[in-house]
Amino acid sequence: MRRTPASLVAGALVVALAWASSPVSPATAADPSPGIADLTQDLNQILSDSRLTIARAGVVVKSAATGEELYSIDSGKLMTPASNTKLFTSAAAAEVLGLDYRFTTSALAAGRTVGSILKGDLVLRGTGDPTMLAADYDALAAAVAAKGVKVVTGRLVTDDSWFDTVRLGQDWAWDDETAYYAAQISALTASPDRDYDAGSVIVSVAADGDKVKVTTTPETDYLKIVNNATVGASTDVLIERRHGTNTVVITGTVAGPYDEWVAVDDPTRYAASLFRKALNAHGVRVLGSTVSGAPEGASELAKHESMPLSELLVPFMKLSNNMHAEILTKAMGRKVAGQGTWAAGLKATSDFAKANGVQILNLRDGSGLSRRDGVTAGSIAQLLLSVRSKPWFTTWYNALPIAGNADRFTGGTLRSRMRGTPAANNVHAKTGSLTSVTSLSGYVTSAEGEPLVFSIMLNQYLSGSPKDIEDKIAVRLAKFSRTTPDAAAQLRSDAPASQEAGDLECSWLKPVQC
């Protein structure tokens, strides 16, 4: 392998503006300064870790001010990016959809209203809003009731035709099917709380005397609960939905409260069940059954709009929300090609990346769950450089996780990493984790105030997650000086081991792990 030389949240806006202020010029010849030579030596040392002996590592560091390459090792090799894929998805969404983009969920009348009776069908139409809560469906039902409707003689029709009917990524692992971080994608869906994990329900267990009590958030009878758990001295419980059904089987022992996020089968019908329940609570009876369809000529009774994309980027990127990535991908396809499909949406993302100088990119989904996603560290660095000139950059940059910041919706998946180092409240970067895959790419300001972009991609290791290697590199970049050599001996003391050691993103391991 060839090796070549190569803020606090309150001040985030100022930092972001500084990041966006200087244009990138063509890379210059390698700087012969001792600072760069020292950086090369130190990064080579970090990457000589024995855990990477049989693994693959692609790393690149560039000056964001000039585009100069400061360090590179296999930056052109195709790697599995995991959630670093979201860098491309989120940036493309900001460009294609715009920061003001909102999802809408509507209730419509397909029929004639006579007094308080709707003679026809009531339609629930969605465009993919991942932020819809049970409370939002309740508010939509209340608005229908406020129109004076008390009886619907027809059916409740679910119109999720804004997206296609392909619910799962074609490369996703079958054993992730019931995991909330691999939930089904639909234009009608619901989330259990303000993490906005669309298409999932929180199933909670607790000891209640000599029995195990089971509750759900939100309260719903959409899931069939089979409770075989018993009260025990410790909590060792399995909560799992059976394949292809909405039957959740609970086994094991329960001593204290425990929550599990479970993906539902058919989120469209799940959303409809929440809406129908809310309609009943507001005195609106739908006499017919729930069916699917896309009726034309229906008139709007009520509408709910989501938060704008500028706000959605925060839970999306801070918590590495897979469903947001896939929904935004299909939304881009719908806008650009009139097709709410993965194929159309991924083409929109790839076209955006290529228009911004990215040469190597193979996307199979928007989130990075697919192991057939392929990208190079150099491609990520090019994206990071290019988007700095975008009018939406400041919002996007601030949505990235921030190292060492304990606030969950600020630090995100980096909140427990690099604390007490020069990288804390400095590094804005996207994490990525799958079994034998880890990545970290983003921005850091050097000790001399120079903005840098970096991408670190580690694949095919057999050890525990080597995220501490990523942290050491990021900390070293935060200490980088062109004029003052840095003592290599400080690397170990300044870069504590990562507290996120799992094979998946820490935010995917509910309850909250990061």
UniProtKB/TrEMBL annotation:
InterPro entries: Beta-lactam/transpept-like (IPR012338), Peptidase_S13 (IPR000667)
Protein name: D-alanyl-D-alanine carboxypeptidase/D-alanyl-D-alanine-endopeptidase (Penicillin-binding protein 4)
NCBIfam families xrefs: PBP4 (TIGR00666)
PANTHER family, sorted: D-ALANYL-D-ALANINE CARBOXYPEPTIDASE, PENICILLIN-SENSITIVE CARBOXYPEPTIDASE A
GO terms classed as biological process: peptidoglycan metabolic process; proteolysis
Broad class of enzyme this protein falls into: hydrolase
Pfam families given in the database record: Peptidase_S13
GO MF term list: serine-type D-Ala-D-Ala carboxypeptidase activity
Position of the signal peptide: 1-29
Keywords: Carboxypeptidase, Hydrolase, Protease, Signal
Its EC number(s): 3.4.16.4, 3.4.21.-
Family from the record: Belongs to the peptidase S13 family.
SUPFAM superfamilies found in the cross-reference section: beta-lactamase/transpeptidase-like
